[in-house]
Amino acid sequence: MSGESVEKKPKSEILWKSPEVVPGPAKDGLAVGMAVHVEKEPFKPWTYPLPTYFTGDDHVEMKVTHCGVCHSDIHTVNGDWGAATWPMVPGHEVVGIAVKVGKNVKHVKVGDRVAAGPQSFSCQECGECKADYSQYCDEGWKECFGTKLPDGGFTFGGYGSYHRSVGAFTHKIPDNLSSAGAAPLLCAGITTYLPLRNADVKGKKVAVVGVGGLGHLAVKFAAAMGAEVTCISRSSDKEALFKSLGASGSINASDLKKASEENAIKFDVMLNTISSTSIDFNLYLAMLKARGTFIQVGAGPGKMQIAPPTMIMKGRSLVGSLVGSPQQTREMLDFCSTHGIEATVEVVPVAEVNTAVEKVNNSTAHFRMVVVHPGHENDL
Ligand SMILES: [Zn+2]
Ligand SMILES: [Zn+2]
Q1: 59 alpha carbon to ligand 2 midpoint, in Å?
Q2: How far is the CA of 363 from the centre of ligand 1 (A)?
Q3: CA dist 323 to 73, 105, 133, 136, 375, Å?
Q4: Mean pLDDT of 325-338
Q5: What pLDDT digit, counting tens, does each position of 334-348 carry?
């Protein structure tokens, strides 16, 4: 099924069912996955010990079936964000079958289909955690791969055959969503859902900049929330495709100056999914109405260059947003279940993750790459 493009429409009559034979826990606590051993090197198979820190009453072990390939995984293994731990098994859009569930975890049972996202855990004590914004925990970000744990172990992500997580940060997936289509919801989905929900986009004009892994989900969400959505993209030939996602129109950004002039002060909200910081932010901002909101979710290295008057003279706001808390993530999964929203994905075997990375780097993924683990190729 390498390179197969799948538009999975969730159908109420096709529901995920727990497998008759639930896979067993990881043998000897070992997983096998695709790892990067040295910064910027290709992925190679690796067998490694799962973190023993996550084997208590509050934890879940899953047999991973699918994992989305997020641009952040690639930034991390390229060392774009500084210090990292090696070897690294990335993947923070993890979907699998629960094979071990701690007794304090009440919302998941063995055999359930579960998912874990980028945040491994948080302090649960600080103001942000208590305000249901644990992604901004005062104690810092704990990624689900490459994080050193208090007992000296490390977290490993969904490019590995098993994943251990904190129950409170593990979610049951609605039965009417496919595993491959649900995986990208855990990062790309919540990253775009939450700021659109917080911007209260119903009845507003929303522009989505960059229609890739994040952007295509942003279009689906904003349309389902009742916004009038315009795609801003350098692809001039994808109008029909954008409309199929729920957009009502598109703007060709290949001549950005012209596009900016023709669409000046037009949008209430603009969500930018492009991770490059070499774009001219001022030309994009000029398309926002007075008091409009520019939401930045594309996260790459570099600096955003914005002339202060671009913000000041129209009272525009610039906001950032990072994934979501467990509660916000569950709200998003429920929204997806109700509105039949999944990621549009291309699935490749996990052994071919280097091909998936190449497609993400070349922006040729349609729209999100997902890796599938051996034995789960035919799973819903
Ligand atoms: Zn991500
Ligand atoms: Zn906290």
Answers
A1: 18
A2: 15
A3: 14, 23, 10, 10, 30
A4: 97
A5: 999 999 999 999 999
